[in-house]
Structure formats: structure tokens, C-alpha cells
Amino acid sequence: MSQEDKKDRDMDVDALIESIQKEQSSKEGASAPNTPTVDPLQELIHAAQEEFEIGWELEQAAKTREYETFRAEVEGVEVPPTPETDPDAVERVRALLEDREPAEPPVVQVSEDPTQAYSAFSEQDFLEGNHVQTMPKSAPPQEEEEREEREETLPSVLFVYPAEEVMFPHSTVPIFDTEGSLRLAMETMQSPIEYVGFVTRKSADGPAHASNLHNVGVVGKLLQTVQLPDGSSAMIMQVLRRAVMQEYLSEEPYLIARVEYLEETLRSIDEPHVEALLRNVRQLLDELPEYTPSLPDGFESMVEALSSPGEIADFAATHFVFDEDERIELLTTMNVRQRLERVLGLLLREVERQKLQKQVRDEVESRAEAGQREYLLREQLKVIRRELGEAFDEKELDLEKFRERIAEAGMSVRAERKALEELRRLAVLLPEVAEYNIIRTYLDWLCGLPWSKRTDDQIVIKRAREILEEEHYGLERVKERILEFLAVRKLKPHQKGPILCLSGPPGVGKTSLGQSIARAMGREFFRFSLGGMKDEAEIRGHRRTYVGAMPGKLLQGLKRVETRNPVFMLDEIDKVGQSWRGDPASALLEVLDPAQNTAFLDHYLDVPFDLSEVMFIAT
After folding, report:
1. Which CATH class is domain 272-359?
2. Secondary structure percentages of the chain, helix, strand, coil, to 5
3. To which CATH superfamily is domain 144-261 assigned?
4. Is the pLDDT score of 282 beyond 50?
5. In 235-250, which positions are buried (b, 16+ CB within 10 angstroms) versus exposed (e)?
6. Is 83 a residue whose pLDDT tops 70?
């Protein structure tokens, strides 16, 4: 207590004594003889003692709250209860009556820093009545008064709404009353609902019962209620504080609970660490708008308006923490330092995720812009060429080219019908569509096959003998059999004769004999090695539904030689394999059998092709 306060107190006591004495004197003069006499000294002592005890109790209670709060937050110990009255109060009254200076409790003089102040203030000092002339920075008198006033305003029994999302204090959120419990409570309760408790459900699909609700929620103030056209209600809530549901007083027809409001804890010893955490969190909040275009307008000003560490942590959790378990964890963490540390880790993860999303988004946009730019340039090029009289349209050229090729190919009726059908599909597609290139490739294969192209046989037995003798020495029996085969082909050119099969060890000239036969007949030659082949698709091709599908090797060879009657050598036919992908040997039956090869069906073309004019030689 300062010297001025002491003088004021002494003057008040002297004035009180003097007024009591005057009043007592006047009463004695006017009192009747039978009125009992009141001892003025006893009345004076009683009045002075009552006034002193009231003032001292208020002062002592403030110091008690100050000390207990610090001990609970900094040292984590329980302080023994402080006596409600000063044990030396009687002695102090006597000292006042005897005009003696009262003994003031000793003061521990320390700095204004709360950590240094309370480090010098021991429990013994408190029990002896000593006090500290300082106030912690984290609790200014004005904020303390506002907090106490707010605590007195919020009710302890509330209507509880089962929310689907976790909410944090210091935010304003819309709530949709889809179940109608809020509307029912507003209609049945006598007093208007001003404050509502919000508790998140453990299971979103579960019932709105107390067993399916978390223990910790928030309390919000109802700002506005709107009736929606479907009969449900929507409300705007200002979330104020955290609260724990102590007891549910009613569950039907709506939830009523007794709540206890939770206080944030921030130890003075943690203030330097909390300050560093705040700087990092603010820096991340400043970076996030660059990678998150969906943030509301004025986000930067909202961040600048934040003041307390707990408010900043709740703001970051509201906007950038989306996992429900993580939000529940942050809601139930009352230690501000621990909450900031957790929020900082989640923000770092969110920043990295937003950076990756922005990178992917920029790449997609750049590709789209490049494609759009190319399209615009091509359209401009078409307009320029049209103005110059050099009309050029890639699609029109393709259509015109395929019309000419289909007309000149000499296809079968079925193949031509299929080609014209695909051409009509091609005409309605844009060149940028993937299906356009698939149809274009198919038409190119269909028109490229030798449907009507063939070479005339020039079989001269004498010339054939000279060719065989010129290129091979010996093999007299083989040469005679080949000449007999050629003589029959010359006499009966349209007869479906047998298939020659040359057998022998490697290197004896089987393949070269086939080339000599083709040369003697004046035909093209194509060799197809079957050794080790295990896939049926090598012969019959792949269906067009597969990416990169192509016809089989038979049709590929026919397109390469550009004639429908070449000499086709099936080399190493005895080494054809078999696997889960099919049996190529069985597929060769349709190729070599004269009764079937007139309508060979390749999977890719899906139209029959005549192989009857092909001369097959096997080895």
C-alpha cells in the first residue's frame, strides 16, 4: 500500500470516529432518562473494524486470485486455501484507535516482468500476507473485467444442437437445421433462445443422441434465423467459447445440457516460444492466399485483425484443417502453445499440398492454352489461305483421298460397305478427337490391301529349270518335284493344288528354293517365320478396341508386296508354340485349308479377305 493510500485511510478513519462521537453526543442529549446507554467506544470499534475488514478482504482476495492463478499455470501445484479474513484485523483496529501507525504487510519489490516477479514470491510470503505489486502481462485489468463479465453473461444450461462439422471460437458460421430440433425448441421454450451449444457427432450417420456426441463442443450466440422454403431453418451463429458437456438434462424432444466453459492456458514461461510460433503461423497464413484462390475476399485483413494466440490458432484451424479427427484434437487442446505447435505442422502440410495443386493446375492450364493457341493459329491460317485462294483443309483432304482410294481399291461388296460406313463416321469427327486418328488408320489399312491387284504367272518350265540349276547344286529329286508342281499349275492355273513343304536341316537351302520358285513363276515373295510364335494375334491380328491394334502378319505381308497372289513362305512351321494366349497352329488351319481361306477373317479388319490365290510353301 502506498503512503498516499495510508494517509487517505487514516483520514477516513478519523472522520468516521469524529462523526460517530458527534452523533452519539446528540443522541445522549435528546434521549429519555430510561433509554439504555450505548458505549461509544464499542460502537466506534465495531464500525471501524467492519469498514477495515471489508477493504482488507477485497484486497486480500485479489492477491489470492493473482497468486493462485500463477501457481496453477506456471508451477502446476495446488495452493492451500487462504483465510477469508486477516488474523491481525483486531490488532489493526486497536492501532487505529490508539493513533498508532498500523503494520503494513511486507512488500516484495520486483520488476514488472511476471516471470521474475513470481519467481521471487514464495509460498511462505503468501501465507505471511506478503503480496506482489505487479500484474501479469497476459491478464490486463480491462481484459480481466471483460472476461468476468462474459462469464457471468453465458448461461450454464443450454439447448444443444448436434452439428455435423467441428467449429471453433472467433468465427461466424451458417447452420442448417435440417432435423428441425432448433425450430421445435424455439416454439416450445418459454424464453427466447439466445445461446446454443454445438457438439459434433461421432458418427455422421448415427442418431442425434448424447451417446453419439463428442464431450467437448462450442457455445455460440444466435444472430439471425431464416425460414427456408422447404420448411427447415437456417441460422447465423457467432461461435464464442469452448465448453464441455457436463450432463445432459434432456434428450427428447431436443437436447438440453449443463455445460462448463473451458479456459485457455498460456504459461508465462512459454511466451517466447509462443511468440516464435505466432510469427511462423502468420507467415504461412500470408503465403496461403497465393496458392489458394478459393479463399474469401479480405482474407489478409482478417489475418491482420487477429490478436491473441488462441484466436490465431482457431482461425487457422477453421480455414485450413479439414480432417475431422484433427479438428476435434485442436478443439480439445486448451494449452495454447501445444495448439499452435499442432496448427503450425498442419499448415506446413497444407502449404505443400497447395503448392503441388497449383503446380498441377498451372501445367494443365499451360497445356490447354497451348492447344487453344495452336487451334486459333490453324484457324487463322485457313482463313488466310482461303483469302489467297489456297484453300486447305486437312480433314477435307483426308475425306477426298479416302473416297478416291475406296473407289480404286476394288474391294469386295462387304469391305466397301464397311469402308464407306467408317468414312461417314470420320466426316463428323474433329481432327483433334482421338477416335479420328483410329478411324483414319483403319481406313488406311483397308484401302492399302491388294483387293484386286495381282501378278500374271509366267511359268516356263525350261526357264524354271535353268533358275533352279543356276541357284542350287544337286537336290535333283527336289528340283524334279518342284518342276512337276509348276507344270500342273501351268495346265490348271485355277485348281487348288497341294501345299509344298520343304523338310531338311538348317542351311540346306529350303528358303532359297522358295525364292527360286517365286522368281520362276514371276511372283512376289514374302517370308513369315513361325519359329517360337505363341500368340494367335500374330496371325489373326488384334481387335480395334486395343490401343495400337494392327492386322496380323499375313495381311501385313500382302500390303507390303502389294499383290494378292504372292509366294508366301511359312518358315519353321514345326516350331509353332502354344500358350494361354491361343494356339497359332490351329489358327493356321483357316489360312492353309483351301475350303476356308477364301474368306479369311482378320480381327482388325473384321471383313473377309480371299487368300486362295496365295501360293503357300512351308518349311
Report:
1. mainly alpha
2. 50, 15, 35
3. LON domain-like (2.30.130.40)
4. yes
5. bebebbbbbebeebee
6. no
